[in-house]
Amino acid sequence: MNTNFQEHRIDRGQGSIYVRDYSGTGPAYVLMHGFPDNLHIYDDLVPHLVAGGRRVVVFDFLGFGASDKPAGARYSFEQQLGDLHAVVESLGLGKIVPVGHDSSGPAAVNYAIEHPEHVDSICLLNAFYAESPTAKYPELIELFATTNLKALTQAILRSPEQFAWVLNFQRSKFQEHLTEDQKAYYSKFLGPIIDGNFRNQPSSGPAFAQMTSQLFEELAKNTKRINKMWALDIPVKLIWGETDPYLNYGIAKHLQSLLKRPSLHVLPAGHWLQIDIPEQVAAVMLGL
């Protein structure tokens, strides 16, 4: 499979973001990551999309992965939306398919609301957007999202041992309903991506802490935009791993009810379905 890509760095004022661009045709899939990880969560999915002939762009939000992590930077959902727009503009992508996983759901949906001329359709993979009756957030995220616990969470971030313990607890919870093969691959592939995000210096800790602290505010803000989401007259594919204990099937059903042209695809996978079953996720995205 052709997995050659061009690398770009795009200036965002307070630092530059790292982008990989795989050549192909059609509206480019622009793949976005979530709170604790980076673009490498798509390493197994990208070859299948490229083999399908499509252009694929994947990038790290500012503060994550190979993007800059400048001291004192301010991170927000608004900034991530700006990162996406900067990628589209800098690469001259025209119409895209924003693909949101986990906490990049808001960037995918809000980009379509604010820049409809740039969006062909949307894919959401076990993501969130607005407040949802069945939503349950991972304990790690809930902890960091509870703003009156900031002194505690900052102390945890300053202690690699304590943070590692919390990460390991969360990892075991995410794996509870995976198959044995999926658990083994999770440990071998995803574990090092998340660990590296926080252990390598400069760390993604500040971006993670700032983003999670804004979670509930963002959900409330987007809940007020539900009419604008309903007004989107484009296809939205909801591609969901059915054993995700947190961003569960109920969230997918709720989102489906708020969209004009949704299609819901439930697959035998967990939260990181693009890692568990990349071939099946690609087939749904490509409409095979």
UniProtKB/TrEMBL annotation:
Residues 30-276 form the AB hydrolase-1 domain. The keyword Magnesium does not apply. Keywords: Hydrolase. GO terms for cellular component: membrane. The keyword Amino-acid biosynthesis does not apply. Pfam families: Abhydrolase_1 (PF00561). It comes from the Bacteria. GO terms for molecular function: monoacylglycerol lipase activity. GO terms for biological process: acylglycerol catabolic process. This is Alpha/beta hydrolase. It comes from Cohnella luojiensis. The lineage of its organism: Bacteria, Bacillati, Bacillota, Bacilli, Bacillales.
